[in-house]
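Below is how a single chain appears once it has passed through the pipeline. First comes the sequence as given, then the structure the pipeline wrote out for it. We keep one example in the README because the format questions we get most often are answered faster by looking than by reading.
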Amino acid sequence: MLRPIGTGLLVLMLVLSADQLSKFWILYGLDLPARGSVAVLPFLNFTMVWNHAVTFGMFGGFGGAGRIVFSVIAMVVACCLLVWMARTPSKLTAACVGAVTGGAIGNVIDRVRYGAVVDFLHAHAFGWSWYVFNVADSAIVCAVCVLLLQNFLSDGQQQTS
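Resulting structure:
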């Protein structure tokens, strides 16, 4: 049976692998940069976006320095998250922290490798359109939501499972 740190590291590697493999396929298998956008379902497109900023395009005014600044900040945060993961007795918390860390590292790899984050998932329906995002972003948002729900339901008491 895995200890919480093992669970967290496993989830980190799964998220990081899924993120990087999906981006590799989008860039080199589907060749989305040349195609621009491909309809997948009536409510989902693969749409190529090179995100030079952070979530939802925030802080895009950093220019070329943004690549370095955002990468350094993300890696510092990832290190802090690894400490949290190592200290928590909760497998659920460790898994969520692992998902956030894996997603953060996946986006850092993009910034270092391509100079921007590869975003390609574009959800839309009934005239509504969400920002274009990727697997790493999805893992981060879902894990944070679970952490918030876990904290809300436990009334701040530490859970061990």
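Residues 4-29 form the longest helix (26 residues).

See the next section for the split statistics.
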